[in-house]
Amino acid sequence: ALIQDVAQDDVQNISIFLPPCNEDADKPENVYKFEDILSPAEYEALQVPAAVFVKITPEEITKKTEEKSHCSFVLEELKFLPADEKSRDHKARCLWFLDTLIKFSYLKVIKKKYPMGPECPHIISRKLMKSFTSLTYNNGSVQNLISASMKAKITAYVIALALHVNNFQIDLTILQNDMKLQESRMMDIAKAMRLKISKAKGLQELENDQNHKLGTLSLPLPVQKASGNQRKRKKMN
């Protein structure tokens, strides 16, 4: 119970879970640097599993959409893969990792060494376990757990990568649905990441008639407001 208390307390301070932010960046792509999300070695390892996305056909995208085999954001972006070979490969790798990261966030306690299956490169499995889980003790053994604070961290990295994929403007509502988060939680994380939030107008195919929120990363960055994180901690009896 104490460990859970600490985890919940940590959640209140989202900022410590964000990717490194370069406040003096001269262009949006340098605010959250790509190498801080995926190292060159990790990026290299994604070439093999992402090949399925590189070669994907419109018919396969339709089938995957019906089967809901990937998250909505990724399925939507697969429709707009560039024709240029290098750009297509780059976007495919990013989308494959983004899809894996979102699916990883659904797990609670991770019991297997390679939780995302054999097609996930070992270096990526290691990254997921090392960067996005908390260690907890249960019945005398150590377990990897995706706590509320780790879910916030995964969300922040998903947002950062999605911004790189989609020209620094993203539909936060689609990602929020993919991550299975409440809107207030998504907005807290997006604002902490200095995104400008606006309402999406005139978008077709809005599911559940939700008012979709767009998040844009543009310079100069909005000034960080003192957030509600200063709430007093509950006294321990």
Write a short abstract of this structure.
Its main location: nucleus. The protein has 237 residues and is mainly α. Helices cover 47% and strands 10% of the residues.
- Could you spell the SSE succession in H and E letters? HHHHHHHEHEEHEHHEE
Largest sheet: 3 strands, antiparallel
The proportion of residues forming helix, as a percent range, comes to 40-55%
Distance between the termini: 14 Å
Which structural class matches the secondary elements?
mainly alpha
Give a count of the beta strands, DSSP E runs of length 2 or more: 6
Chain-averaged pLDDT: 84
Radius of gyration, in Å, reads 18 Å
Overall geometry comes to globular
Helical run tally:
11
Oligomer: single chain
DSSP strand content: 5-15%
InterPro entries: RNA_pol-assoc_fac_A49-like
Keywords: DNA-directed RNA polymerase, Nucleus, Transcription
Protein name: RPA49 polymerase
Pfam family, one: RNA_pol_I_A49
Model description:
The structure is a single chain. By secondary structure, the protein is mainly alpha-helical. It has a domain of about 130 residues. The chain has 11 helices and 6 strands. Helix 6 packs antiparallel against helix 7.
